[in-house]
Amino acid sequence: MVDVTPADAVPPAEVGEMELYHPHSWWTKYVFSQDAKVIAIQYSATATSIGLVALVLSWLMRLQLGFPGTFDFITPEAYYQFITMHGMIMVIYLLTALFLGGFGNYLIPLMVGARDMVFPYVNMLSYWIYLLAVLVLVSSFFAPGGPTGAGWTLYPPQAIMSGTPGGQDWGIILMLSSLILFIIGFTMGGLNYVVTVLQGRTRGMTMMRLPLTVWGIFTATVMALLAFPALFVACVMMLLDRTLGTSFFMPAISEMGEQLPHNGGSPILFQHLFWFFGHPEVYIVALPAFGIVSDLISTHARKNIFGYRMMVWAIVGIGALSFVVWAHHMYVSGMNPYFGFFFATTTLIIAVPTAIKVYNWVLTLWRGDIHLTIPMLFALAFIVTFVNGGLTGLFLGNVVVDVPLSDTMFVVAHFHMVMGVAPIIVVFGAIYHWYPKVTGRMLDETLGRFHFWVTFLGAYLIFFPMHYLGLMGVPRRYAELTDMTIMTESAHHLNSFISIMAFIVGFAQMVFLFNLIWSIRHGREAGGNPWRATTLEWQTPQTPPAHGNFGKDLPIVYRWAYDYSVPGAKEDFIPQNVPGAFAPSREPA
Amino acid sequence: MAIALVLVLIVVGSVLFHFLSPWWWTPIASNWDYIDNTIIITFWITGAVFAAVVLFMAYCVFRFRHREGNRAAYEPENKRLESWLTIVTAVGVTSLLVPGLFVWSRFVTVPSDATEIEVIGQQWQWSFRLPGKDGKLGTSDTRDVSADNPLGVIPGDPNGQDDVVVEAADLHLPVGKPVKVLLRSIDVLHDFYIPEFRAKMDMIPGSVTYFWFTPTRTGSFQVLCAELCGQGHPLMHGMVMVDTEQDYLAWLGQQQTFAQLSTPQKTGSADQTPDRTMPSGLKVAAQLETVGSR
Ligand code: HEM
Ligand SMILES: [Cu+2]
Ligand SMILES: [Cu+2]
Question: Is A430 part of any domain?
Fold first, then answer.
């Protein structure tokens, strides 16, 4: 039963250590830094800033939906611009950048016992190109015609036509350019994460001793490297359609009585390319969250993660399967309806490894020693929202059930629960967990608990009732909910309620931001390993870790990442770099 | 400890909300009650799983919360338990998938006696075309769209001459007769969605998509566009009236054919609905104007 973690067999060092590039000036230390930890903070700060824009946009949309006709400045045009920028920022520029560029950069080298990423210079470029992508995106707010209002899916022909905000102005051009830049930047970082995990691990750190956080980020990165190219070509082709008048996605069109000079293109080809990227993208933000939450639960329940090997295979299996389910976003797109049989089957198969992960999380709680710290609370909240959102996925994945629900508020509720709220909640838990390592200080506990309760309960109250509006038939992406015969008076009241909850949840995020900034100076001193955790990032000689992470000698790994409450051991955790027998129950410490 | 209690309340609250809240689907008006039944099955299975997982968590949090001197158990894996859970999940998922695919095969198999009608979407209005006496719709091409031929029926196709054209007005259908809806767009993606019929399908410029249904009760039902199609999208409403056979025939008798419409001088343009001469989308565009300047 315990063959997971042989404690012997530490292979000899095969290659000598290489000297890192050491910064010589303030600029190369804090700005054009090649240190993955600094890059991580740059990524996180940029992602959080742009994420705030997306949050504000969500309030504006909720103002319109909750109190239709009250706010003159929210025209349909503006609403579609808000929705598009909100969706795209949240998915790509916030979550993808934060999980991979932020957490990936900070945690991968530390957790695998490396001094830095394998290609530090390329890693630095990755951030600066990401920043450029964000700036190009933001510039569209100020461009003539404003940002694109095509929806985050950017479906042509509408995306590049005059009936859509930004379609014949700058909006769509800037959006596509920004995405292209983002993908270039991501690829540079992504190659780094993959190679570092494969080649940069310290002695003794076998793949099957990696913390699940690393497995999650690693698998997500491999997926992103395979999925983003599809979006890349789609963006390039659409850019050509828009600027040079090619017809990759443009059939013959009569727009407002005028024949457009396009012919022969296929709008549905774009949808296939988009979702070939877009579905894996859902898991690109979910898998790091899965990994991180596994480690949070294990650490704060003082218990090994249940079924580690199964968890690894589930992550890899979900990653692989997620490349053959993309067309479940297209059941009613007009593609050949017989595709539905295939894609419904693959989609429901994915539910099995996903369910296994959930079981293993809750079974880790079973007979644990659960410390209800803030990271643990967020981990529990994640399970609730993720299970809820995952289960509604079984509605939408089951092709015929999707027919009435597709493109309604049910979908909006589902994906917010599963890929909006659930991963963001993990981000919060992770920040409360690793902030002490990054800054040396704890976040304030009282503010943290306030933030937790309002965010968790508020988000549930926003998105749980919303499913029922979709069941009623209220479509998504409706800037005007007037003259809808299916909507009862009470449905409008429900919308107002949801909006008010959204403002409250938004306010709680301001408290969180305040906590982040305030605690840098005023937080309680954390020490090197406040959670008494086993993984290598907590065993660094300095906190925050210095450039090079581990002082003179790299740690040597003797055990897996989950030796909590080992029977007979004195402490209830044994760090990965502590040598010695695995099961001290036979030889008490 | 609050969290254990809250977890229980979330389960209880969600279940109560499901059964007691006034928000639910609209009364059905088509043969697709199969879909409703599949949804109900899905609600039961997923609801049970949700309750089980969250209540189990609540129990664990309560029972195994940290107290002085507690120590967690050490159990890396448990092959038997893991295989059992995998099998049970696979069975659960299959019991959702099988009825789902069964109903889907009905959804994609159009009965041979279904009448073909055509729905045309454009920014931002709905038009319709019904086959004339020959029972056949004439072919169409977006490049033939013009002010006189707003739906792009190919003028040379004899099958198209007697087609009934309903531009930017309500569609009528006889109750109890299966219809196959052919969907076409002349500009961007749209989606023909009637909540009471439980069915929808995108329309794609350059292709013809379809679905079928049988209206099961008379009444008027709002058509909503369910695919983002530009700024007029939320105002792209239409109306389908399901009539008794006599009412339907009476309505049909008042409609004009393609041939009549394309030679307006002969039929007397004074009788025509004023809508017809309005450039497409202008109504919604005007409405947008008022929305914008509110
Ligand atoms: C409490 C926080 C949030 C609120 C109140 C909120 C609100 C909204 C609203 C009102 C819409 C438009 C719905 C419609 O009319 O169709 C929307 C769309 C969307 N949201 Fe959020 N959202 C939140 C957080 C997030 C997060 C964290 C994500 C990250 C995945 C996200 C991703 C999206 C996406 C992808 C869309 C679809 C955009 C489109 O239809 O093109 N949202 N959100
Ligand atoms: Cu439309
Ligand atoms: Cu539309």
Answer: yes
